[in-house]
Design a protein that fits this description.
By secondary structure, this protein is mainly alpha-helical. It has helices at residues 2-27, 31-42, 49-65, 70-86, 89-106, 109-125, 129-145, 149-165, 169-186, 189-205, 209-225, 232-247, 251-261, 267-270, 272-288, 297-308, 312-328, 332-349, 352-365, 370-422, 428-504, 511-542, 546-561, 581-602, 638-649; strands at 565-570, 606-613, 617-624, 653-658, 664-671.
Length: 682
């Protein structure tokens, strides 16, 4: 018994000596050696993710407290890479912030590029594509400048993925092509294989199918020539080629490639997502050529895997395909059952594209509610198109804005250095204070201009959207009237002419009575033509300019949302086509601001708005019977200043008359001939 205790005590002594020795080793290591020690420690396979994070936190603490050297910044970037493997994004961001701060302090452009890249990764992983795209663009400029083709190719690949996911396929094609060009200079076969596959997927989305097949074949050649240990890379290429042929409706070819891609032995166990996708696509192509062998079992097998993986978007596709199978095999009840399951799952997903596919299938199998499903489909489809267009525009603005900001930052940095060299020590504090205030004012101005530009673009897009609706309505109405004239009036007149010709040569005693009946029919036709003429006149009144519609909606919203009674008159003789878009936008914003001011401060019971014009100018008058204010006050509110500024931008004249207790009247005159430009965002 004593021997056991002795052995235990001896082991405890050895362990304590070992720990003391380890602590003494760490104590006498330099900061960079300590960080290297921690990085090696993290690579051990027998420690948990939480333990890795704890070790990395110790390393980053040393970075914060040690000298800002090139070696410490390089180790900082290695720590960031290790945090990436753990998936602890708050720790990852903290390490990236330290690297960015140190790189800016040391003016180390390589570390700055790595820091921007790290921020791009952080925002990408946390599903913030706009911020991710912004930081990737910042790092892209530096990598390209220093000819770091490895970093540049990676950044362009990631930008391409963001654009692809946002359906900016043209932008994605450009970014991925740049990535491929850079990869050729460094000869990285694995990265080249991945980029080629992504280019193929993007070309498939653009419906450039031959181009897509070419990219996938190139990727397949790269995989075979480099003897990738993972045969799955070939499977990806083959299955994607099959998918392209499926889109081309060459289903026999699609089936051939999809079957080849299933030859990977452990595909179902190692890559269940890929297996379920290939199986579902194979079953779908078989269904299209009426080869029902193995159906619906293949569909159901794929569905089972997708449910197990909780891939709800893929589950929706499975439900739709199974519904199509039952519909094609005249099992309408089962088809409707699976279509409804797809619709319910898509609604819970809240993914618009899933909902679109589900609505389309539901409208096919559910005749009773087909009209409703079709309306919902069109509404969501229009919304998606607008969102995709905005995404493309947003990425373009980020790209342009980043370049301008980088150039502006360089100019400001040079100016600040010159100021520091030019001023003596006694004026340093004053100079710094001035710079800070100037920068804040500049930032506020930039934010204001960006907000103003965004608002102007939204109004312009709304105007264009309404114009499209009006043009479509006009076309439909003209088509209807043409059909009415051709099928109704002209046909009846032709019949009357034939009857009158026959009566001219008739000796029948009933001929006068028939002639009278035919004359009455001519009167009826005359009335029909008059009604069609009235319809045309009404069309002119209804299809008014889209700007007037927007103003009308604003005033009607004012009526419904506030207690004050609103009366308004818009001159219908104004030719709005001659009025520039900038003037329309500014008039709308002035009217909007005027109404907001009345709602906030005037306590008015009646509001009167008049819009009139002549060949040279347009006039806007906003009048209320509220409490009024003193117009002679030097300081005016931001809203009133904005109205004055917008009028000046249009080279117009604004007259504000008000007295306390007597209400307010704002009269604005704007010349039509003035050509205004909407300011580009900085």
């Amino acid at each position: 018994m004593k021997t056991k205790y002795f052995i235990f005590a001896y082991l405890l002594f050895l362990c304590s000596c070992s720990n003391d020795k380890k602590k003494s080793v760490e104590k006498y290591l330099s900061p960079t050696d300590s960080i290297s020690y921690y990085l090696k420690k993290v690579e051990r396979l027998d420690i948990t993710n939480a333990e890795k994070v704890k070790i990395l936190d110790q390393a980053i603490t040393i970075i914060k407290n040690s000298e800002n050297s090139l070696k410490s910044r390089e180790l900082n970037f290695e720590i960031i890479a290790k945090y990436f493997e753990t998936g602890e994004w708050d720790h990852y961001k903290n390490a990236a912030e330290i690297l960015l701060k140190n790189s800016l302090s040391a003016n180390d452009i390589i570390s700055k590029a790595n820091a921007y890249r790290s921020f791009g990764n952080y925002y990408y992983q946390t599903n913030q594509p706009d911020s991710s795209f912004l930081y990737y663009t910042k790092s892209e400029k530096i990598y390209y400048q220093i000819k770091d083709y490895d970093g540049y190719s990676t950044i362009m690949l990631k930008k391409g993925l963001i654009q692809f996911n946002a359906n900016d396929n043209l932008g994605a094609d450009l970014s991925l092509s740049k990535s491929l060009s850079a990869i050729k200079k460094i000869n990285d076969s694995k990265k080249k294989h991945f980029v080629l596959i992504q280019l193929g997927l993007n070309a498939n989305q653009l419906k450039e199918y031959s181009k897509a097949i070419n990219y996938f074949n190139q990727a397949l050649i790269v995989a075979k020539n480099n003897n990738f240990s993972d045969v799955f890379q070939e499977t990806v290429c083959l299955s994607n080629i099959g998918l392209v042929y499926q889109n081309l409706k060459e289903h026999k070819k699609a089936i051939s490639f999809l079957k080849k891609s299933l030859k990977y032995n452990n595909l179902k166990q190692d890559y269940p997502i890929a297996y379920s996708n290939i199986t579902d696509n194979l079953a779908y192509s078989k269904l299209q050529i009426n080869d029902l062998n193995g159906l619906p079992d293949l569909f159901l097998e794929s569905l089972k895997i997708r449910k197990k993986l909780n891939d709800k978007s893929a589950v929706v596709i499975s439900y739709i395909h199974i519904s199509e199978y039952y519909y094609k095999t005249n099992q309408r009840k089962r088809a409707l059952e699976y279509a409804n399951m797809a619709l319910e799952t898509a609604k819970s997903n809240k993914i618009p594209i899933d909902l679109l596919f589900s609505l389309k299938q539901a409208s096919v199998v559910d005749n009773k509610n087909a009209a409703k499903y079709s309306d919902d489909y069109l509404r969501i489809s229009d919304s998606l198109q607008i969102a995709e267009r905005n995404s493309r525009d947003r990425f373009a603005r980020i790209q342009l804005g980043t370049q301008e900001i980088i150039e502006e930052n360089d100019v400001l940095a040079n100016r600040n250095r010159n100021l520091l060299y030019g001023f003596v020590i006694t004026f340093i504090l004053v100079g710094l204070l001035f710079i800070v205030r100037a920068q804040r004012a500049r930032t506020r101005e930039l934010l204001f201009k960006q907000a103003q530009q965004k608002a102007n673009e939204e109004i312009f897009n709304l105007m264009m959207s309404q114009q499209s609706i009006i043009d479509e309505s006009r076309y439909k109405e003209k088509k209807r009237l043409a059909q009415d004239l051709h099928d109704g009036v002209l046909g009846r007149m032709f019949g009357l002419r034939l009857n009158l010709d026959s009566l001219n040569s008739s000796t029948d005693p009933d001929a006068p009575q028939k002639r009278t009946e035919l004359l009455n029919e001519l009167k009826t036709i005359e009335q029909d033509i008059r009604e069609i003429s009235h319809d045309l006149n009404r069309e002119k009144l209804v299809l008014i300019n889209n700007f007037v519609s927007i103003v009308h909606n604003l005033l009607e919203e004012q009526k419904s949302s506030h207690e004050a009674e609103v009366t308004y008159n818009i001159d219908t003789s104004i030719n709005w086509d001659k009025v520039g878009n900038a003037i329309k936008i500014n008039m709308y914003r002035i009217l909007q601001e005027g109404l907001q001011n009345i709602n906030k401060y005037a306590v008015a019971k009646h509001i009167k708005v008049e819009i009139s014009g002549d060949s040279e100018s347009v006039f806007l008058k906003i009048q209320d019977d509220g409490i009024g204010f003193d117009v002679n006050k030097k300081s005016k509110g931001i809203g009133m200043q904005n109205m004055i500024s917008r009028t000046n931008d249009c080279q117009g004249i604004i007259d504000i008359s008000s007295k306390k207790g007597n209400g307010t009247c704002i009269e604005i005159t704007i010349p039509i001939a003035t050509k205004q430009l909407i300011e580009e965002p900085v």
